[in-house]
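Could you help me review a protein record that somebody else here produced? My question to you is simply how this chain folds and whether the tokens agree. Thanks in advance; the entry in question is below:
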Amino acid sequence: MMFRRLLFSISVLMLQMFLQPVVAQMMTAQQESQDSTINVVAYFCKNDTLGYDFQHMKMKIVDNDTTVNYYFNSEFQLIVRDSTSQGYKIEMKPISNHVEMPNDTLMVQMIEKLANSMGNVPLIFTTDEYGTIQHAENWREVRDFTRKMVKSLTDSLYTLKPELAKVVDRQRLEASLNLQFSNEKAILNGYEELRILFGLHGKSYRIGKNEEDLTNPSGYPQHLEFIVSYGKTSEDYGFEDDYFVNCLSEVTIPAKDVVNLTTDRTNMMYNHEMTDEERQNLEKEIDEDAKVSIIEDYDYFYNGWPCDMMYEKVTDLKNVRNVEVYRIQWTSRFWGTFSAGDAQQIGGEGSSI
């Protein structure tokens, strides 16, 4: 019974990981100048400083009963260290981190330890002139620090829970964690905040409401709805030329493919080769197609600085709905007015999820 529950959890995890943000993938990177489009472009100035509040939440809904399994909250600053005609150098400076996991206080302590330790290593990244992220300048420093932390954390985990070795091979777990920070691309991909904040920069979007049915990169039918327009981010702190890009994506994944994904993941990760009987039991348990919906809302200030960003992934598998939400809201801003060279400083507060 325990292994069946584990397999079902892996199934949900694979589906949660399956689809990446849609908006950044679907639109053209070519900049347009027509009145019918909006270009997401960075007009930053040296010493611009934006404060942000980041929230990451995972919830499970079973028969209208909601359980919060994971909640992470952090505050950080983005500081423009240099601005040239070729692009920008930006420092991502962590300020604070907080984790809540109701069913695992040990894991909370470990995650907070790692997150707060990362405050000693700010990320320095560069973008092109549009604001599209290009490189992580100090990725080796981040990689080396993270490897030390991963070893420290796995040492603590397997010392406090030695029975874990019967289920998860330590070397595989450690290698899997290190793989997420193995090179420059992997490190940049590991910063979900940056993907959400800058994933659309350098792209052009047609104003209005548009719908599209297509086949996604994995070969499944996908329905998309886009809404793109100008609109003040807020009455108190917004500007007339602020704009937003919203998208809804829906994909249905056949039950047999969910089983195959789960089997592959289980055989790769755990000290357990799934037997024919276990696979048959899994097929009986997962006998319905899965539906994955992604909601993306991106609000920008007129100068291309992210304002209020939300990414929500909903996975429906049988009678279980798993929801994962990322939310980033600005809390303070100090920027130069691009046209006049003046500086504007203001603080604002966004609402929580």
